[in-house]
Amino acid sequence: MKMYLNSIYLATEGEGVHVGTPQVFVRYQGCNIGCLNCDSKDTWEFKDGMGLDFHGVLAEINAVSLQQKIKRVSITGGDPLHPMFEDSVLALVKELKKDGFYINIEASGQRISHKTFDLIDYISFDFKTPCTGIKGQLNLIEKLSEQYPNKFQIKSVVETRKDFDYLIVQKEKLENTDFPWVITPSYNLNEEFPKERFNQIIAWNEDLHFPFRVIAQQHKLLHGPDKKQI
Questions:
Q1: What total of structural domains would you count in the chain?
Q2: With contact defined as beta carbons under 8 Å apart, do 80 and 105 qualify?
């Protein structure tokens, strides 16, 4: 089984509600969504970067896990829910769950995979804003609310007031918003720390009585926006 992996590495979660949690990251190589402000464009091309078969991937995950005594995995990308990866992701999840791993998946927000979502512990699901150039899929959030309550967060990148206002309008369309909706101030590649943008987004959220949770990407604050595998 071809795995199409970019890397396997240990790091602390840099964003969302699990920020600061140590995990083994399993990063898939391949994505055709094309967000304008993607900070991982090196993972777009569909190729098998690591050259490991299925058993080799499991061995590498377990080696990192045993060394650090960590039983948490985050499956990310690229786009790990691309149909090309469905069989390998599902097989990987089944084996890791047998071994007692807690599994989070970083979903692009463009599709739901029930076979995978039924088995994993947590779903980090993107909802795209105008700055990405991709249309957000509000109907998929409704499905998550119905089928996977208390098992997911929504994450949205905000760069401008247009992005923030767009999210407010979309949030008001939902009947049930009893889940964490995290907005992340954008901190783009080759950019100096945008302190004014961060302060503006926090103020906008405060003015509207905190409809979202504003959580910065910790790894970028610590290491800058360009460093990988952190």
A1: 1
A2: yes
